[in-house]
Amino acid sequence: MNMILTLPMKQTLKLFALLTALIGYSAVFAVSPNHSSSAQVPVVEDISQIAKLAREKGLPILLVFSADHCPYCELLENEIIKPMIFSGDYTNRALIYKMNIDDSNEIIDFDGESISTSEFASNHNAFVTPTMVFLDPNGKELYKRILGINTVEMFGGRVDQALAASLNKLRSRTVARK
Q1: For 94-119, how does the pLDDT look when each residue is reduced to its tens digit (9 = 90+)?
Q2: Architecture in CATH of 40-177
Q3: Which of 18, 90, 134, 161 has a CA that sits 20 to 30 A from residue 42's CA?
Q4: Sheet containing 131-135: which strands, arranged edge to edge?
């Protein structure tokens, strides 16, 4: 009787060891960075050139205003923006850029003039970070801006809805002009 119990016990121990190893591997992969972490969000240097490209491609500009030491900005970038860029699914839906409003860096604005990032943000009423704006090639908002970030699992749908509405509005303007 002892032999009958010993054999299933050995199999049970092997199965337990295998399951423990699989769970361990799953935990490692769950906390390791995914491929989207290697994606970089381009930083605005010359928005007049971005606008020119947006005009040529007929795309809206998704501009994310962020700040140093802003955990919500980091969350938005890592969980929403970088995966959007990495996926490649948004290449024909928007030009995606970010701007740090804490910097005193100078950029080129829509008019081709040099301006500080903080002044540019102020001109676009971006005082809270993160703020996402959906702009046409002239710098006008196409859709209501999104302030902050809430439930990550549902937030992507909100961004997709805003991008789709922005793209439709931009394209309807183009069709109306022709």
Answers
A1: 999 999 998 889 999 999 999 999 99
A2: 3-Layer(aba) Sandwich (3.40)
A3: 161
A4: 95-100, 61-66, 131-135, 141-147
